[in-house]
């Protein structure tokens, strides 16, 4: 068709519209792009504050002036363990770690003052007597203490502590906690007051209390009994447990249970020291003494940590918190994209563009490319800001890896937004859901998914399954960047991720890139498929991609009429409706290009719901509208006018029948019909941030208008509909009044010279002057195109429409021009007279004398209306009868009027409703 636009033309129109739209929302875009900058600045400020805090003396090794001087320069100070408190000690270099006596881990037992504490040891074995003999040697009868070297002699005893171990042994918590240390023996003295001894550490002399603890060996029948007792929590007095299995004098094979504790819940068990060696040494010595006698044992002298250099506390916030916060930053684009797509769907802007010729290909190309460009700019700002501010998360990792990762993810994110937009119809719901996804993803990934990634025992397959969720893939990639920035690469010897690091089995970036790339392609395909089936107007068949292999339905030119036996009895239809049917049948047999619209037995049926019966919104409609004609559709609310237009513009599919627009079937060729169609919907479908001129430029470009022709068409449309003066044309449509929006919608429907135009109540909300202006535009426009117009204004219908059709309950009741309809259904005069209530009977008698076939149609408080058949009444006789009546009683007012179109409408509607009631 002459006004059909090419793919490039449509893409250009949509691109220009989107760029203009972004220009209107520049402040919002600036705020969006500044979000990464704000977060990066916040991280830098927090990093500076933490660095300043860690640079204080409290987090450095302790120092003091030499020779016990109270003041000296910093350069003169001597630093070391002996000058440090317990907090500073952790930062000091320890070339010679202290030696501590080995300890058993004892359960927390409340001991009365000066009374012995009981600590149970459970044991079992295949040979009970053997195990009993061995365990009898576990605890000595008396302690061995050398008061000249108490710390050195403690290792000869079986010592234990109820304190929790730490992740290092530079300071033994048993000597720092203030709790007593227990020496275990078979029997404690009655007065268990213990003793204290001094010791020196880090230049500080402290006292340590040592008390006796009674070690009791308890037999259990099996290892299952021990396991159940430990598992059920009955461990208050159980220090250790041993299973001798099949041990005997010739072989020693034993299982040791130990109590796994960790300090104050802040260290994980995998990084906490365990007091197991003393348990192994204890039972080993008991076995040696069983074999060799009481004096035989392996001396466990001490435990000590490895030497360490000076520790400098540094916390890299970007690496520590980057996974969570940067996940939120990248995901912030998801609600923006999703709400933009749902907004077009909710406001029906997508289908409005489609009805004016925008194909699915250009829409997807430009919309996808537009969101991709926005995402790339956003991510570039994110990386640039972070790099300029010196965050190692960005500066250490290879930028090419970062680009590939972010590029693949934003494409996956856009595809996911397109997919989910098909299932939302409300912007608020979509926005709330999107932000729940954003924050929920970050929190779940940080506090749940990350634990699975770090747990080496967790199955790798399950981690890959979880990474199929795009949010977890994003977090895993950011987590790998953070880990690489915080550690030294084995390949380069420096921090940060390089391409060769992706081959490392512990690095999950490679699998994340593969998963996201495959998902991007799959999700994009599914999104396009669902969009075609659900979201584009009336939708397509789920097997639309097989259309080329299916048998095509007959076209308008080749269609032959094959009437079925269930044909409706024509005698129930009016003569004009029968003539319209016959005209359609003749057109289908001998098609002509003069008729732009032909409807053949078009029906729309809505099934019943919630116990209500089904209803035909449009039933057996036959209609032919030639070019150059404005066809008016009249009818009460719910008559089926909007349902008919919805089928003709592709919003809904007909239940049966067919309709042809410029020879194309609405069931199969709506894309072709859209190129020659203009629509003024019942409700204005406009972008609030675009001006009236920008709307017309966009839709004009869709209709293949270019250059000076486009500019001229836009200017003429604005002037004709009184939208040119006073800066109205360049004002945002969101600030238009209801009447101005209506005029703009009419201008949009007529731009680009469409061959067929549908106008659904175009003059709603217009003042009389604007309505008159609109009528002139429509009169001019109908000269070379077919227009179907619905209205509730009889004046408008009479002024604009060449032919009218009155619809009632989905059926066409009559067709014809206004004069024909008034002549056919309005062959009466309407006589009105107002008197006092006492003379109502006198008025009725006067009318009966004029014609016995008069019909009273209204009566209230002395005012009466009568229909007088024109064939039986002369106007002169009516005037004469009124003059006679005035002499007999008081007449307040009277009038005689010809039938109006409104009277015809009411009469036809009442007759149809009466027929439906009888049937």
Automatic annotation (TrEMBL):
GO MF annotation: an example: lipid transporter activity
UniProt keyword annotation of Hydrolase present: no
InterPro entries: AAA+_ATPase, ABC2_TM, ABC_transporter-like_ATP-bd, ABC_transporter-like_CS, ABCA, P-loop_NTPase
Annotated Gene Ontology cellular component terms: membrane
Entry's Gene Ontology BP terms: lipid transport
Keywords: ATP-binding, Membrane, Nucleotide-binding, Transmembrane, Transmembrane helix
Stored SUPFAM superfamilies: P-loop containing nucleoside triphosphate hydrolases (SSF52540)
Domain ABC transporter: 597-834
UniProt keyword annotation of Transcription regulation present: no
Subcellular location: Membrane
Segments passing through the bilayer: 32-50, 317-343, 363-389, 401-420, 432-453, 512-530
Source organism, top-level taxon: Eukaryota
Membrane topology: Multi-pass membrane protein
Protein family (similarity comment): Belongs to the ABC transporter superfamily. ABCA family. CPR flippase (TC 3.A.1.211) subfamily.
Protein name: ABC transporter A family protein
């Amino acid at each position: 068709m002459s006004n059909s636009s090419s793919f490039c033309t449509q893409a250009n129109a949509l691109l220009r519209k989107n760029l203009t739209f972004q220009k209107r929302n520049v402040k919002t875009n600036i705020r969006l792009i500044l979000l990464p900058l704000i977060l990066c600045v916040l991280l830098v400020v927090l990093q500076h504050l933490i660095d300043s805090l860690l640079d204080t003396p409290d987090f450095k090794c302790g120092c003091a002036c030499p020779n016990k001087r109270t003041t000296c320069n910093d350069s003169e100070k001597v630093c070391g363990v002996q000058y440090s408190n317990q907090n500073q000690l952790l930062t000091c270099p320890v070339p010679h770690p202290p030696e501590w006596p080995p300890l058993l881990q004892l359960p927390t037992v409340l001991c009365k003052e000066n009374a012995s504490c009981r600590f149970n040891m459970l044991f079992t074995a295949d040979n009970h007597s053997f195990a009993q003999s061995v365990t009898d040697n576990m605890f000595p009868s008396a302690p061995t203490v050398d008061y000249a070297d108490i710390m050195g002699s403690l290792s000869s005893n079986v010592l234990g502590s109820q304190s929790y171990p730490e992740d290092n042994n530079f300071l033994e918590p048993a000597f720092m906690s203030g709790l007593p240390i227990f020496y275990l023996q078979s029997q404690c003295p009655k007065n268990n007051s213990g003793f204290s001894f001094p010791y020196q550490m880090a230049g500080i002399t402290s006292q340590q209390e040592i008390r006796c603890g009674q070690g009791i060996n308890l037999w259990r029948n099996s290892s299952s009994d021990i396991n159940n007792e430990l598992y059920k929590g009955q461990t208050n007095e159980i220090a250790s447990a041993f299973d001798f299995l099949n041990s005997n004098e010739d072989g020693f094979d034993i299982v040791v249970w130990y109590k796994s504790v960790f300090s104050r819940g802040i260290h994980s068990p995998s990084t906490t020291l365990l007091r197991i060696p003393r348990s192994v040494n204890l039972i080993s010595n008991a076995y040696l003494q069983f074999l060799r006698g009481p004096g035989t044992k392996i001396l466990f002298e001490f435990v000590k940590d490895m030497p360490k250099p000076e520790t400098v506390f540094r916390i890299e916030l970007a690496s520590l918190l980057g996974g969570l916060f940067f996940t939120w930053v990248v995901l912030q684009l998801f609600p923006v994209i999703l709400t933009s797509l749902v907004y077009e769907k909710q406001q029906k802007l997508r289908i409005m563009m489609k009805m004016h010729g925008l194909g699915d290909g250009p829409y997807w190309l430009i919309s996808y490319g537009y969101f991709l460009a926005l995402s790339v700019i956003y991510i570039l700002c994110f990386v640039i800001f972070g790099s300029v501010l010196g965050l190692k998360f960005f500066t250490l990792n290879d930028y090419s890896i970062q680009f590939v990762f972010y590029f693949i993810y934003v494409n996956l994110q856009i595809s996911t937004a397109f997919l989910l937009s098909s299932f939302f119809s409300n912007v608020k719901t979509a926005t709330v859901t999107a932000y729940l996804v954003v924050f929920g993803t970050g929190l779940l990934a940080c506090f749940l998914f990350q634990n699975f990634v770090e747990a080496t025992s967790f199955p790798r397959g399950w981690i890959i399954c979880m990474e199929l969720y795009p949010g977890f893939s994003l977090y895993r990639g950011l987590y790998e960047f953070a880990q690489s920035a915080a550690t030294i690469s084995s390949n380069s010897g420096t921090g940060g991720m390089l391409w060769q690091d992706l081959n490392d089995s512990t690095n999950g970036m490679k699998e994340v890139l593969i998963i996201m790339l495959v998902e991007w392609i799959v999700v994009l395909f599914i999104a396009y498929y669902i969009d075609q089936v659900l979201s584009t107007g009336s939708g397509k068949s789920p097997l639309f991609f097989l259309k080329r292999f299916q048998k095509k339905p007959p076209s308008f030119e080749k269609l032959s009429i094959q009437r079925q036996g269930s044909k409706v009895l024509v005698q129930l239809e009016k003569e004009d409706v029968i003539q319209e049917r016959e005209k359609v049948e003749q057109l289908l047999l001998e098609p002509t290009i003069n008729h732009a619209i032909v409807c053949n037995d078009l029906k729309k049926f809505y099934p019943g719901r919630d116990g209500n019966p089904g209803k035909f919104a449009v039933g057996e409609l036959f209609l032919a509208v030639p070019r150059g004609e404005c066809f008016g559709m009249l009818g009460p609310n719910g008559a089926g006018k909007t349902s008919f237009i919805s089928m003709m513009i592709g919003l809904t599919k007909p239940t049966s029948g067919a309709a042809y627009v410029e020879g194309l079937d609405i069931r199969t060729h709506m894309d072709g019909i859209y190129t020659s169609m203009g629509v003024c919907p019942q409700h204005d479908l406009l972008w609030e941030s675009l001006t009236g001129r920008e709307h017309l430029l966009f839709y004009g470009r869709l209709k293949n208008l270019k250059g000076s022709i486009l500019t001229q068409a836009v200017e003429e449309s604005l002037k004709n509909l009184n939208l040119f003066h006073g800066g109205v044309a360049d004002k945002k449509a969101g600030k238009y009044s209801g009447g101005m929006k209506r005029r703009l919608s009419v201008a949009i429907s007529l731009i680009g010279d469409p061959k067929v135009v549908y106008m659904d109540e175009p003059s709603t909300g217009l003042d009389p002057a604007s309505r008159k202006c609109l009528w002139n535009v429509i009169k001019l426009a109908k000269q070379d195109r077919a227009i179907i117009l619905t209205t509730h204004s009889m004046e408008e219908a009479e002024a604009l429409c060449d032919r009218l059709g009155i619809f009632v309950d989905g059926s066409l009741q009559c067709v014809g021009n206004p004069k024909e309809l008034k002549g056919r259904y309005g062959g009466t005069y309407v006589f009105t007279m107002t008197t006092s209530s006492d003379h109502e009977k006198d008025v009725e008698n006067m009318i009966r004398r004029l014609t016995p076939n008069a019909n009273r149609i209204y009566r209230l408080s002395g005012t009466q209306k009568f229909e007088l058949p024109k064939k039986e009444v002369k106007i002169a006789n009516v005037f004469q009868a009124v003059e006679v009546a005035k002499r007999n009683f008081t007449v307040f007012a009277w009038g005689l009027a010809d039938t109006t179109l409104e009277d015809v409408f009411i009469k036809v509607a009442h007759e149809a409703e009466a027929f439906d009631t009888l049937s």
